[in-house]
Structure to design on (218 residues):
């Protein structure tokens, strides 16, 4: 199954994408994760991307599309995928459609994770991640067993620099202006389904599975 997960920062799409990729045994591709790895590695891409990421702005398309093409070429997306954080503009969505067509692929479903701005701000201000295994935590809804330490490897949990309040505000603005038009783009192609993304992670996941099952049966 080939899926796109859409939603504002903090909508939980990354957490849900990770879960669904394990259940369906498909590739989870997060452009944000790839960029953060590039920044941590200090690569040329990372250094160029960091300037935009630190402000909460989008990284230019030329870098993003290259990352996607590379993965299509290396065939890691052949058994299905869930795209998380990509596409983020209508131009990226159109470029993706053309790229997928070249590889004989298409999108089965675009899922929109619906969540209010208040909830987003609350979640992002409590969000922490493990720099070693990338596991996500949240105060107070998803606490690690030991304060400030990852349950899996004991590493010290960190806060993403772009989760600081002033950057979050810009990321939400960028989402509304540049990313939201994609919702209509997929709606017009009858590919869009909404999932209410407030409440416990497991309930949202159940709803997601239900929606995907309905899609398979349709
Ligand atoms: P995310 O982890 O998806 O919230 O992404 C973190 C940051 O990486 C974003 O605020 C952007 O600066 C950058 N980024 C991630 N994905 C994309 C994309 N598809 N297009 C442009 N910039 C992106």
């Amino acid at each position: 199954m080939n899926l796109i997960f859409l939603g504002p920062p903090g909508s939980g799409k990354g957490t849900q994408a990770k879960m669904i990729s394990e259940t369906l045994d498909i590739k989870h591709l997060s452009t944000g994760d790839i960029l953060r790895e590039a920044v941590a590695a200090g690569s040329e891409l990372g250094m160029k991307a960091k300037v935009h990421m630190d402000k909460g702005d989008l990284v230019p398309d030329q870098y993003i599309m290259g990352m996607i093409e590379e993965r299509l070429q290396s065939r890691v997306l052949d058994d299905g995928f869930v795209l998380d954080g990509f596409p983020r503009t209508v131009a990226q969505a159109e470029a993706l459609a053309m790229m997928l067509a070249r590889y004989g692929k298409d999108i089965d479903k675009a899922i929109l994770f619906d969540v209010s701005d208040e909830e987003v701000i609350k979640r992002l201000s409590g969000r922490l991640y493990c720099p070693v295994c990338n596991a996500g935590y949240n105060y107070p809804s998803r606490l690690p067993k030991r304060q400030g330490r990852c349950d899996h490897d004991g590493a010290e949990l960190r806060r993403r620099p772009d989760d600081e309040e002033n950057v979050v505000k810009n990321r939400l603005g960028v989402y509304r202006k540049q990313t939201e038009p994609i919702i209509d783009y997929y709606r017009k192609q009858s590919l869009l389904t909404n999932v209410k993304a407030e409440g416990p992670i497991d309930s949202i996941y159940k709803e997601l599975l239900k929606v995907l099952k309905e899609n398979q049966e349709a």
